[in-house]
Design a protein that fits this description.
The chain folds into two domains: 126 residues, no CATH class; 172 residues, Orthogonal Bundle (Farnesyl Diphosphate Synthase). Helix content is 72%, strand content 0%. The protein is built from 16 helices and no strands. Helix 13 packs antiparallel against helix 14. The longest helix has 31 residues.
Length: 314
């Protein structure tokens, strides 16, 4: 369950305060607070969007975070108390039923779905996309090893690319091909998450690195659990980082296809996420004992480069 973290604030107040309906205003404020709390880099990037697009992105993120938290909390209960997975399925089925109701025009008392329903009035988001996201996050309860990159790709598509496909409807784009590049960006970002969070995932007995590629580089599960920073492990990480960067490079073509007022925040998210890979390298690939991250100053330092790229593209 997402805890009530909404606090009224004057920061960018007009984004929410310009909404006249009190219930809808509170719903969007709730989603904004969730985004600000759980996704600081993403939240910072969204602040460069026009107000209507900002609010819709908050609603989409609120929906995604609710599902992610539902599964993460259920996993903790399963590991600690023998929580029955069928209870998770009941909650997911209930949410799915309510989500279908939103698409059919029924009212919802849930603030996230209230905000999402208003977003659907402005932007067409196919219902299969949140359904695929639900499938992806649920798989974390039943699958904690991946045999090959094909399996990792499919997982990454459901939990990350699908989010990109939903937000692309809000950003707006000039060519349908932009959606293919949105998929690439989602894959790149999820691969970055996987590499950054290797140590944390091991604590949950999760390994997202492809098994066949670990074997190819001579890295065993025991090596990972023991935090062995061998040459073999470093070579495996270099291989994974290189692949993630190729997906980022492919995605750049699609960002140029977005509506002009949406390009800056997407560029900002893209480059700051990609720079996490740089941090992993700077940390000598130690993803066991330290977490690669950018501080606020580093996140904003990329802006001049982005402005130059946008100017060159236009």
């Amino acid at each position: 369950m997402i805890r009530p973290i909404y606090e009224k604030t004057s920061f960018h107040k007009s984004v929410i305060e310009e909404v006249s309906d009190v219930r809808l205003k509170d719903a969007y404020a709730h989603c904004r607070a969730i985004t600000r709390y759980y996704a600081k880099t993403f939240y910072m990037a969204t602040r460069f969007l026009p107000n209507e697009k900002q609010r819709s992105i908050f609603a989409i993120y609120g929906l995604c975070r609710y599902l992610d938290n539902l599964v993460d909390e259920a996993e903790d209960l399963i590991n600690n108390t023998g929580f029955d997975i069928s209870e998770v399925d009941q909650k997911l089925d209930s949410f799915k039923y309510n989500l279908i109701g939103v698409y059919e025009g029924r009212d919802s008392h849930d603030p996230i779905l209230t905000a999402f329903a208003d977003t659907l009035k402005k932007f067409h988001i196919p219902i299969n996309l949140p359904f695929e996201l639900m499938d992806g996050v649920r798989s974390d309860l039943t699958k904690n090893r991946y045999a090959n990159f094909h399996e990792v790709y499919n997982y990454s598509y459901k939990v990350a690319s699908v989010v990109g496909l939903m937000t692309s409807r809000v950003f707006g784009y000039s060519e349908p091909k932009a959606l293919d590049y949105a998929i690439d960006l989602g894959i790149a970002m999820q691969l970055t998450n996987i590499l950054r969070d290797i140590g944390e995932d091991l604590d949950r007995d999760r390994i997202y690195l492809p098994k066949d590629e670990m074997m190819m580089f001579g890295v065993s599960e025991a090596d990972l659990f023991n935090g062995v920073l061998s040459d073999s492990f470093i070579d495996l990480m270099k291989f994974q980082i290189q692949r993630a960067r190729k997906y980022y490079e492919r995605a750049d073509t699609g960002i140029k296809m977005l509506e002009r007022d949406s390009r800056l925040p997407v560029y900002l998210a893209r480059y700051n996420y990609a720079r996490i890979l740089d941090k992993i390298e700077e940390n000598d690939y130690n993803v066991f004992g330290q977490r690669a991250y950018l501080n606020k100053m580093e996140k904003f330092s990329i802006l001049p480069r982005i402005f130059m790229e946008m100017r060159a593209a236009s």
